[in-house]
Design goal:
With 294 residues, the protein is an alpha/beta fold. Helices cover 31% and strands 22% of the residues. It has one domain: P-loop containing nucleotide triphosphate hydrolases (Rossmann fold, 3-Layer(aba) Sandwich), CATH 3.40.50.
């Protein structure tokens, strides 16, 4: 269970401060495929950074499977990031001069795991992503789709409980993007929690649950039923007020009716100013934390 209680995040001070998250109260169940959606600058990547301990909240409490992140030391947070969380990012963050095997094994190398053990575990992750023939190729020799699969293998190598994927299809063509979403669904089916941050509403509608953020506030939660996941998406994603359109009813006419109807829960709406884009901040935080020594 991912639980956020009265979480606020403020960047800067005084008149130039930016309130990126505003009194966020959210519970996300374990073992589900969950999308965090919203326009650029809405706060969705900030939320992911806080769950992944790449950043800390200004106030409030973050609890992951019973562990309160706020009370952890820097070394404990580093251990949490390395072993509890698997990260997948739009820009891959592979070391281009390392082989696929070396890149996938990187979290275990940082943790000081014996070379034989880490290479055995890395190869298992590589096999699960059908990359065995690429294991000894350098990352710089791979296509975009192959690089993203390597980053997914790296995220899985420590068998983490939670996978955080920030715009994982953003640099991929549509076919490779669909393959990545299918891989994430398979990871979720294995019992892990997958948190997908995305601008792509088509991808979001393939998940179990969509959490919409607007101006730093959780504005809506939508549970996707099977019909919604299968329905083709052709209408505008947002209405004239800038709110996410729920298509669970208007695009399922030709599909069989399900006995398990999902509900749309409008939990809270609020005002707020536009905030800065999250992606650059994610990149900076990643550089600082993802390869740090424990």
């Amino acid at each position: 269970m991912i639980k956020l209680t009265n979480v606020n995040k403020v960047y800067g001070k005084g008149e130039s401060s930016v309130h990126a998250l505003k009194d966020v109260n959210l519970e996300l169940p374990s073992g589900k495929f969950i999308a965090i959606v919203g326009k650029s600058g809405s706060g969705k990547s900030t939320l992911m950074n806080i769950v992944g301990a790449l950043d800390s909240c200004t106030s409030g409490e973050v609890e992951i499977d019973g562990e309160v992140l706020n009370s952890k030391t820097a070394n404990q947070l580093a251990d949490y990031r390395n072993k509890k969380i698997g990260y997948i990012f739009q820009s891959f963050y592979l070391e281009p001069t390392f082989t696929v095997l070396e890149n996938v094994a990187m979290p275990m190398t940082i943790a000081g795991v014996n070379r034989k053990v880490r290479e055995e575990k890395a190869m298992k992750a590589i096999e699960s992503l059908n990359l065995v023939d690429k294991a000894h190729k350098k990352a710089s020799e791979l296509s975009g789709g192959q690089k993203q699969r390597v980053s997914i293998a790296r995220a899985l190598v420590f068998d983490p409980d939670i996978i955080l994927a920030d715009e994982p299809t953003g640099n991929l063509d549509s076919q490779n993007g669909q393959e990545v979403i299918a891989l994430l669904q398979g990871i979720c089916d294995s019992g892990k929690t997958v948190l997908l941050v995305t601008h792509n509403i088509d991808d979001a509608r393939k998940t179990d649950m969509m959490v919409e953020i607007k101006d730093g506030v959780i504005s809506n939660i939508i549970y996707n039923d099977e019909e919604t996941k299968k329905a083709a998406q052709h209408l505008s994603d947002y209405d004239e007020n800038g709110d996410l359109i729920d298509k669970s009813q208007d695009q399922t006419q030709d599909l069989p009716q399900s006995s398990d109807k999902s509900e749309n829960i409008d939990i809270k709406k609020g005002d707020g100013k536009n905030i800065v884009s999250d992606n650059d901040k994610t990149n900076d935080l990643l550089s600082e934390h993802i390869f740090e020594k424990i």
